[in-house]
Amino acid sequence: MHKAVTRGRPRVLVSGYYGFHNAGDEAILYALVRGLRDVCPGIDIAVLSADPGHTALAYDVRAVPRTDPRGIARAVRAADLFISGGGGLLQDVTSLASLQYYLGLIVLARALGRPVFIYAQGIGPLRTGLGRFLARTVLDRVQGVTVRDAESREMLCSLGARRPPVEVTADPVLALVPEEAWRARGRELLAKAGVRKGSLAGFSVRPWTGDDDYTGALAHAADELAAAGYQVVFLPFHHPGDLDACRAVTGRMRTPALIVEKRLGFSELIGICAQLDLAVGMRLHFLVFAALSGVVPVGLPYDPKVRWFLDRLGLPEELRVGRVSSVELSRAVAAALNRREVLGGLLNERMGALRAEARRTPVLALQILAGCRKPV
């Protein structure tokens, strides 16, 4: 049983991959905080962060060091609801220790009598028997579960997780509408970097240890776009790994390409993505940022979450490049360019539905919170 809390102002504690300056995860946190405040303007939000000073200042929240056991315990006790999410926290591909960390926080919250809500997460991959057992055991004891795609729900069902019912909503970032100030900043950054007016193709690259020659395939596709009159710009989302990967690709190109080397905030990257005519990339939230502005994405699914997002957009199979080869990637880019207008209409229709789904998540979270609090 959870312990009822009688404060007048509701308090939530949020856990995720925050404070590491990964643009996708920072955008998730912004969307999550904004969504909760839109539904409950007076809510008090605390966040577990690797960089508490930055997180507190950037999102106007209370921030707690994510590796401080005593601080975490105090924050859990002070909360009316513990939120785990969003993003892909519950997986053991990064490491089993990472999964144990996030599940351990849930166990702590339940041990201290606090209700737990899983916020639009992507579940898996869970490749170890221990990882699957832990996830099933812990998630059976939470009060609410939302996931960002049907495949994540199927993953939980395959684990044997029986309660609570799992609802499919959408990635929190899909609730956002790019602000004009973000777009203006994007134009300003591109101009300062030397990008002239004209057709613009954006690339997102991350480190990859697959067997395919992905740097060669991306370099070939970028060269083809440059030959067709497109300016090519590479956008690192996580430093320094993505920056090194971008340099590895441009180093194999025959034509010059621009890398935006400065570490940018998520709103600046959304503003730049809004200027693109085509988005080709690996990072999930690069593709999400592009789709927010109706830019057709060509994805390279290095992880199932990328493929699942492209599936939710309803894009044709030829735009969902699997194993990366120059021929397949060039074919996908050509298909996107040849059908850009039709695909753009399909994309905007799907994005409207996904935005509505994403905006359901904070409502569901606060329904759990309301059900666990006694009136003052």
Overall helicity: 40-55%
Strand count, sense and barrel status of the largest sheet are:
7 strands, parallel
Please give the oligomerization state of what you see. single chain
The overall pLDDT average reads 92
* CA-atom Rg in angstroms: 21 Å
The SS-based structural class is: alpha/beta
Gross morphology is: globular
Number of helices: 15
- What fraction strand? 5-15%
Low-confidence stretches: 1-6
What is the fold-level CATH name, i.e. the topology of the largest domain?
A: Rossmann fold
Number of strands: 12
CATH superfamily annotation of the largest domain: Glycogen Phosphorylase B
CATH class of the largest domain: Alpha Beta
Number of domains: 2
Order of helices and strands: EHEHEHEHEHEHEHEHEHEHEHEHHHH
Distance between the termini: 20 Å
The CATH architecture of the largest domain comes to 3-Layer(aba) Sandwich
| Spatial arrangement of strands, main beta sheet | 3-2-1-4-5-6-7
Molecular structure report:
This protein is an alpha/beta fold. The protein has two domains: 11-168, Rossmann fold (3-Layer(aba) Sandwich); 180-354, 3-Layer(aba) Sandwich (Rossmann fold), CATH 3.40.50.2000. Helices cover 48% and strands 14% of the residues. It contains 15 helices and twelve strands. It has helices at residues 23-39, 52-59, 69-78, 96-111, 129-139, 150-159, 180-192, 214-227, 241-250, 266-273, 284-292, 304-313, 326-338, 340-358, 360-371, and strands at 11-15, 44-49, 62-65, 81-87, 116-121, 144-147, 166-168, 200-204, 231-234, 258-259, 278-281, 297-299. A seven-stranded parallel sheet has the order 3-2-1-4-5-6-7, sandwiched between helices. Strands 10-9-8-11-12 form a five-stranded parallel sheet, sandwiched between helices. Helix 5 (129-139) links the parallel strand 5 (116-121) and strand 6 (144-147). Helix 1 packs across helix 15 (360-371). The two termini are 20 Å apart. Mean pLDDT is 92; it is low at 1-6.
